[in-house]
Amino acid sequence: MGKVIVLDHPLIKHKLTFIRDKNTGSKEFRELVKEVSMLMAYEVTRDLPLEEIEIETPITTTKGQIISGKKLGLIPILRAGLGMVDGMLSILPAAKVGHIGLYRDPETLKPVEYYCKLPYDIEERELILLDPMLATGGSATAAIDFLKEKGCNSIKLVCLIAAPEGIDAVQKAHPDVDIYVASIDEKLNEDAYIVPGLGDAGDRLFGTK
């Protein structure tokens, strides 16, 4: 079974509080999501392999470690996942970025795919799937399904907040995928929104309703 890693660093907790606050405007909301995503990138990439090289400092020669040629891919689920890309790229500037467009049918609550554009060598990359909210788990599960159909076998899911129901759904469908979250919230309400949650992440990022 994939791991569920809660990133409870004080800086993340602090910023997440203001992300949740309904009085936080779109500009501040975007900045905070970017900052939290950047902080989460450290933990998400903790297991990247290293190799030793020799360099010259101004004083002498020494050995140091660099990341061992691991190819990374960032895959935001449109549109809310876009808010997490810049923060991740600030730490992982060499990562390629793909996009998967999904929306939730308001009646069936099932995900519907409407767009997909991925790097040409997607199957060779370690993928970080980005979506601020893991609610029912339907969109994340569908996105992982699609990536696996394309030959991807190394996928991590990164979300700001998650409902237990969403975590369970992803783990049942994809037990090999690790899930990284800043908070596991209480539950879903009758409209499939996370409680206490932060509202609709896409609307709050882009100032829409």
Explain what this protein looks like in three dimensions.
The protein is of the alpha/beta class and 209 residues long. It has a single domain (4-206), classed as Rossmann fold (3-Layer(aba) Sandwich). Helix content is 31%, strand content 31%. The chain is built from 6 helices and 13 strands. It has helices at residues 10-20, 26-44, 85-91, 138-149, 164-173, 201-206, and strands at residues 4-6, 50-56, 61-67, 72-78, 96-97, 99-104, 111-117, 126-130, 133-134, 155-162, 178-184, 187-188, 194-195. The strands form 3 sheets. Strands 1, 4, 5, 6, 7, 8, 9, 10 and 11 form a 9-stranded mixed β-sheet that branches. The chain has a two-stranded antiparallel ribbon with strand order 2-3. Helix 3 links the parallel strand 4 and strand 5 (96-97). It starts with a strand and ends with a helix. The model has no long low-confidence stretch (mean pLDDT 92). It catalyses: UMP + diphosphate = 5-phospho-alpha-D-ribose 1-diphosphate + uracil. GO terms for molecular function: GTP binding; magnesium ion binding; uracil phosphoribosyltransferase activity.
